[in-house]
Design goal:
Elements (H helix, E strand, L loop, with lengths): L6 E5 L4 H12 L3 E6 L2 H11 L2 E4 L5 H15 L5 E4 L18 H26 L12 E6 L3 H4 L5 H12 L1 H8 L4 E8 L5 H4 L3 H8 L11 H13 L7 E4 L9
Parallel strand pairs: 1-2, 1-4, 2-3, 4-5, 5-6, 6-7
Helix pairs in contact: 1-10, 3-4, 4-6
Length: 255
């Protein structure tokens, strides 16, 4: 699939992996919709890349549906690309030291990370099914969800987060099989240790110590690395129904 003037929606595009992806796709020629809970951040990026910013809580189906309608009206066609980067990174033990449970946090994590990805996938796929097929393979669209290496290497305190990201990984193949007849591919990326606002807040020595655990390259992932893989998935029609770890060969050890 080529990028010139086709529609692409990126959730969580107000910062981090989503921002890098939105900017990269726009530079390739795509018309990009920035779906983010933080509207001012989304508007700032939309102004830079000539895109459309929509305030969206991905766990709210009505907001997601309205945003896809707004994007389709703006572009004149439904998006052919959806990249789900919206998510929250909660940290809580199942039972903390005071004997308190984290059930509320668990539910919210799944609502945003997992249900939010399912809602946006559902709306995007329904719209993509109505598009004209492109190219020799008759492709209509591509959906890329964001999992995490935590689904395989989860740490203490990541039970909710790992569960949400593991479920995202697990739904990749059945979704790809369901939408194969419509020419829609479904993939997932499982990033490792990436530069984030949380990492930026750590002392330099701590950052260097963590980065040294990554075999090669021995550094945190750059959000641009994630955006580059998004491009490669979109371009390669044989990438479908699988999860790609993007982690520099790191394997998180229990602490």
């Amino acid at each position: 699939m080529e990028f010139d003037k086709i529609g692409a929606v990126v959730t969580g595009a107000g910062s981090g992996l989503g921002e890098a992806t939105a900017r990269h796709l726009a530079a390739l020629g795509a018309r990009v919709g920035i779906f983010d809970f933080n509207l001012p951040a989304g508007q700032r990026i939309a102004e830079d890349i000539g895109g459309l910013a929509c305030k969206v809580d991905v766990s709210d189906e009505s907001e997601v549906g309205a945003a896809f309608d707004a994007f389709t009206d703006w572009l004149g066609e439904a998006p052919r690309i959806l990249v789900n980067c919206a998510g929250i990174g909660t940290a809580a033990r199942v039972v903390n030291r005071d004997g308190e449970l984290s059930i509320t946090s668990f539910r919210r994590t799944l609502e945003v990370n997992l249900t939010g990805s399912f809602i946006t996938l559902s709306h995007a796929a329904r719209l993509m099914q109505k598009l004209a097929p492109l190219g020799p393979d008759g492709e209509r669209g591509v959906v890329i969800n964001t999992s995490s290496v935590a689904y395989q290497d989860g740490q203490i305190g990541q039970t909710a987060y790992a569960a949400s990201k593991g479920a995202i990984a697990a739904m990749t193949l059945p979704a790809a099989r369901e939408f194969a007849r419509s020419g829609i591919r479904v993939m997932a990326i499982a990033p490792g240790l990436f530069e984030t606002a949380m990492v930026d807040g750590l002392p330099e020595g701590a950052q260097e110590s963590i980065a040294a655990t990554i075999p090669f390259p021995p550094r945190f992932g750059d959000p641009k690395d994630y955006a580059l893989l998004v491009e490669q998935i979109i371009r390669n029609p044989m990438l479908n129904g699988t999860v790609i770890r993007l982690d520099g060969a790191v394997r998180l050890q229990p602490k």
